[in-house]
Specification:
By secondary structure, this protein is an alpha/beta fold. It has helices spanning about 5-25, 25-35, 65-75, 140-150; strands at about 50-55, 80, 90-95, 100-105, 105-110, 115, 120-125, 125-130, 135, 155-160, 180-185, 185-190. About 25% of the residues lie in helices and about 25% in strands.
């Protein structure tokens, strides 16, 4: 009798493979590829005046901070996620903000920063496929935050990653919301 791996096990294997490819990128390449995200800012479907949630990079993730600075210069309010219950919350990010640990190895503005409701999530991820399905880090932080934010109104979800993190197919589950698009050093790609 043939047994099939569970979706969680399949995702875990794909996650490990994608993260290994990402981790194999030389540091200088990661820096250059991260900086090149700014070249595609005009391709991003971010409405004027939208509140944009970015992320503080951990380990060998793509670094969205130069892109976030350009979005700030264009007049967008920015925020960063904080691991909280029942789901992530997003604290306002302004220049000179005091940063503190925000869970999962990330940093965010301190408790005095206003909590914002983002219109656009620029999301980290472990892997993605050509249909816009994503693999997170397995903790469900973004899944629960997306569900809560969407109950409050429209939300655009854009993955930000290196192109090498693309996988052939992500086994999507019922609770998985596909990305609206992905931004890599190769440009922006819309899904759906």
């Amino acid at each position: 009798m043939t047994t099939f791996p569970s979706l969680a096990a399949e995702k875990d294997t794909l996650r490990k493979e994608a993260l290994a490819r990402r981790g194999a990128l030389p540091e200088v390449d990661r820096i250059e590829k991260s900086l090149s995200l700014c070249d595609f800012i005009d391709e991003l479907p971010i409405p004027e005046g939208a509140i944009v949630a970015g992320f503080w990079p951990i380990r060998d993730e793509v670094d969205p901070r130069p892109l976030l600075d350009q979005l700030r210069q264009r007049g967008h309010a920015l925020c960063l996620p904080v691991v909280a219950k029942p789901h992530l919350l997003f604290r306002s990010l302004v220049r000179g903000a005091e940063m503190e640990p925000a869970g999962f190895g990330t940093m965010a503005p301190g408790r005095d920063a206003a909590v914002l409701r983002p219109d656009v999530l620029l999301m980290p991820l472990a892997g993605f496929d050509a249909a816009g399905n994503r693999i997170g880090y397995g903790k469900g932080h973004y899944d629960t935050a997306i569900a809560a934010l969407e109950a409050d109104g429209p939300l655009a979800c854009i993955g930000v990653a290196f192109a090498t993190q693309e996988v052939d197919r992500v086994p999507a589950e019922a609770h998985d919301k596909p990305l609206d698009g992905i931004l890599t050093e190769q440009g922006y790609r819309a899904f759906g």
